[in-house]
Amino acid sequence: MRRKFHFLLFLLIGLPVFVAGQQTALKTNAFFWATTTPNIGVEVGISHNITIELWGAYNAWKYPDDMKLNLYLLQPEARYWFCRKFEGHFIGMHGHYGHFNIGQIPFISGLKEYTLRGDLYGGGVSYGYHWAFGERWGIEAMIGAGYAYMKYDKLRCAEYGEREGSYTRTYFGPTRIGISFIYFLR
After folding, report:
1. Which listed residue, of 58, 69, 96, 144, carries a Cα 20 to 30 Å from 76's Cα?
2. Residue 1 in contact with residue 154, Cβ under 8 Å?
3. How confident is the model over 110-135, as pLDDT tens digits?
4. Domain ranges in the chain?
């Protein structure tokens, strides 16, 4: 697991150095910040109409009353831009992998007394639009749908609670949504 993390960190930090002359953008999704989840992405242009993005989120905050919303999520995506990269409409294919530990959330009925801890992975397709504001800034809106496979344990208490069972679940539906603020490194 540590080797995977170091490889992904290398891609996030090191990849823009190796693509001299290509456009590189840093981005963050405002919807995830609304759930107190820090996130960042790097998108690199590899041709006139194609970009590759690696985006990730991590939430390790401690909440009162044993509430948990801990997760990490990685979503790589390849995008095709109809005009040229970082302008206008795009479609993409994305994958996702994540680990979650959520529960004891008083305003969600199924998670008031339980904690869910497990992994998810899958993929899907996305569509979006990019608005440029000057040479260095932009905003992007996107939505995606696809498949996710989840394998998790259901616990009665927050920390070391009694395990109610182990479950697997498949999901088809929205897998990506966001409004991202973008800064171009060029």
Report:
1. 69
2. no
3. 777 888 899 999 999 999 999 999 88
4. 2-184
Concatenated DSSP letters for 26-58? Answer: EEEEHHHHHTT--EEEEEEE-SSSEEEEEEEEE
Residue with tokens 């590899």: 46
| pLDDT mean across residues, the chain | 87
**Residue partners of 183: CB distance under 8 A and separation at least 6:** 25, 26, 27, 136, 137
Quick one: CA dihedral 112, 36, 53, 119, positive or negative?
negative
**Which of 184, 179, 186 is CA-nearest to residue 26?**
184
42's tokens: 């790097």
pTM, entire model: 0.80
Of 95, 7, 19, the closest CA to residue 51 belongs to 19
